[in-house]
Specification:
The chain is about 40% helix and about 15% strand. It is α+β, with helices and mostly antiparallel strands.
Length: about 625
């Protein structure tokens, strides 16, 4: 076999080719490196500058200040106060048990709070901060701040917390705020604002309904740190933007007075300026202290509130429905007049009315009464007789025009508007024909008649003016023009005089105002909650609380030139003239003579054991003791 001879020339050519290939590869790699460095240095310059800046500068978020809620005179109802808080960011925690133990020592956390934090950390998704403590004293806040480099995942921040000067008296009006839940976070398209520790959103009441106005924009404190997180210096902060202020038509002083005057009853009061429809007061009691919700309500406190048979978590002004009782009678009398009934015609009241095989009762034997006497003395037999004669088709439209069954344009999503039945409604709802006993029941506000206290106050406003008064709560909303109702002025004057007689010498004589020259017109009501036996009738104290009748009263003042209308429904309060009427009397007195009204309130509160806060503190202490729980600190009571 012939071998090829390898010469020096061959070797030189082979080496040169290899050098070219190797050099080309090196040049290509070098070119790629240069291009990459150029792309990073030029095209990605801003990105990496930001990353570098984020390593050097940290932004400590500052929750925005919610907008204030103020009353018609500028007095604060819901405001903010400075506070310090501590949170845990789950995705940044390195040694969870160690961090929690250190925080327990620094903040003096009770064992149940440590258990809560541990549970919430275990259930967190990593992005949702876990609250450690709100309203932390400055000394504890400072102790945590200086240890932040050794406590990864701990966020100590300065911010604001919601504060309600009126406490429990405004609970149902304003609602409360709280941290956003995972569901609320998802619903708002994962708004990062809701992840900032300390940011709380409206959960109930006006705080929820006006969230878009009250919520602000977050700010932050910029600080320069070392690679290990040690603070170097503070930089210029990014200011937060506060939410908008909302002004209500509420008179805060009147609202709180009415709430306190309700006392230990379960009731609601509504006061309306009939010239504008402005709602001046609408307390529902008992209530809850929204400050406790703002600070973070405990499971035990929630259990106590939700288990209370007086329903402190329910807004009775709009959400609860009751039979109207005899407060419907002025509107029924107006409907009878429109139907052509002679107001002077008398009906003999024997205390009972027979319809078929059923006997309907009256509270007493009134004897012969005309329409004026029937309203003044609240005779059921008169209205049984006359309303049966006229028929439900001519009664229901008048009652609806006075506000019963109406839903109002108010910033609440819990409003229930009740029922004013008629033959068409009965067929749609129950698929049966209207019967005579349905008319009898409706004539005195029983049966299927259901209303709320706001509607009752609206009826008083419309009877006072003869116009369609529409309740208004927000000052920035235009006043609805008050159109004339389909009532004759002579009929209206007659009904108003009859309502004056109710207070002057009728069933509500005890409700006369202690004011010179100011007279009140009104109508009492006592609504049954169950069928009464003959032995129970008239005895409101022997029955258990939930079986007692509701107590109602509506009124307007002054009688000769109406300016204010008011109404109350006291759950299971008994006879309307004895309970509801004096409550409205004192509330109206406050509008004209605060000193005289406060003197009456002081006497009243002494008789029932003190102010709402004092009674709530005792009630809470008793509940905790009965359930084997230790007393809470005075500041939480």
């Amino acid at each position: 076999m012939k071998h090829m001879r390898i010469t020096t020339a061959h070797q030189s050519i082979t080496f040169s080719r290899r050098m070219m290939l190797l050099g080309g590869a090196q040049a290509a790699v070098g070119g790629l490196l240069v291009a990459r460095m150029g792309w990073l240095a030029i095209a990605q310059n801003e990105k990496y500058n930001l990353l570098s800046e984020s390593n050097r500068v940290q932004l400590i978020p500052v929750p925005p200040r919610r907008g204030w809620i103020i009353d018609r005179n500028g007095k604060p109802i819901a405001i903010n106060k400075a506070s310090f808080r501590v949170d845990l960011i789950p995705q940044q925690i390195v040694n969870g048990p160690g961090v929690i133990a250190e925080l327990q020592r620094l903040v003096d956390l009770p064992p149940d709070e440590v258990d809560r934090i541990t549970r919430e950390l275990a259930a967190s998704r990593g992005f949702q901060p876990v609250s450690v403590a709100d309203n932390v004293p400055y000394e504890q806040y400072a102790a945590i701040t200086v240890r932040l480099p050794d406590l990864p995942g701990v966020a100590a921040s300065r911010g604001f917390t919601r504060f309600y000067p009126g406490g429990s008296t405004v609970g149902q009006l304003v609602g409360y705020v709280g941290p956003a839940s995972v569901t609320e976070y998802e619903k708002e398209n994962k708004n990062p604002l809701l992840l900032i520790p300390g940011v709380k959103i409206g959960k109930e009441g006006l705080e929820k309904a006006l969230e878009s106005t009250l919520r602000g924009e977050p700010g932050g404190q910029r600080v320069e740190v070392t690679a290990k997180g040690k603070l170097v210096k503070e930089l210029d902060p990014k200011p937060d933007r506060s939410g908008g202020t909302v002004q209500l038509t509420i008179d805060s002083d009147l609202h709180q007075y009415a709430a306190r005057r309700i006392g230990d009853q379960s009731a609601a009061v509504v006061v309306i300026d009939v010239t504008t429809g402005d709602i001046l007061a609408m307390p529902s009691m008992p209530s809850f202290d929204p400050n406790n919700f703002s600070d973070g309500i405990s499971q035990n406190e929630w259990k106590m509130l939700s288990g209370d048979d007086h329903l402190p978590l329910v807004d009775k002004t709009l959400e609860s429905l009751y039979p109207s009782g005899s407060t419907i009678k002025p509107s029924m009398a107006m409907a009878l007049l429109n139907a052509g009934v002679d107001r002077t015609q008398k009906v003999n009241c024997t205390g009972a009315f027979q319809l078929g095989n059923h006997t309907f009762h009256c509270d007493k034997r009134h004897g012969p009464l005309d329409m004026d006497g029937a309203v003044v003395h609240s005779c059921d037999v008169y209205f049984y007789t006359m309303c049966l004669r006229v028929g439900a088709d001519k009664l229901s439209p008048m009652v609806r025009s006075m506000g019963f069954g109406e839903k109002f344009d108010l910033p609440f999503d819990n409003q229930r508007f009740g029922t004013i039945p008629d033959p068409d409604w009965m067929m749609r709802k129950y698929h049966r024909k209207w019967q005579g006993y349905d008319t009898v029941n409706m004539s005195i506000g029983q049966g299927m008649v259901l209303i709320n206290p706001m509607q009752l106050a609206t009826m008083a406003s419309r009877l006072a003016t003869g116009k369609r008064v529409v309740p208004r709560l927000l000052r920035n909303k235009p006043i609805v023009p008050q159109t004339q109702l389909a009532v004759d002025q002579d009929h209206l004057d007659f009904i108003r005089k009859a309502m004056w007689g109710v207070v002057d010498h009728g069933t509500a004589a005890a409700a006369k105002l202690p004011l010179d020259g100011i007279q009140m017109a009104g109508k009492t009501g006592t609504a049954q909650t169950h069928n009464l036996s003959a032995g129970e009738r008239g005895d409101y104290t022997s029955a258990t609380w939930k079986l007692r009748d509701h107590s109602l009263f509506m009124a307007f003042v002054p009688f000769d030139n109406p300016r204010y209308a008011a109404a109350t429904i006291v759950e299971h309060g008994g006879f309307g003239a004895a309970v509801a009427a004096p409550l409205i009397r004192d509330t109206i007195t406050f509008l004209y003579d605060k000193q005289k009204a406060m003197a009456a309130l002081d006497t009243f509160e002494q008789s029932i054991g003190g102010t709402p806060d004092e009674r709530l503190a005792r009630k809470t202490a008793a509940w905790r003791s009965a359930n084997g729980l230790p007393p809470i600190a005075p500041s939480k009571a």
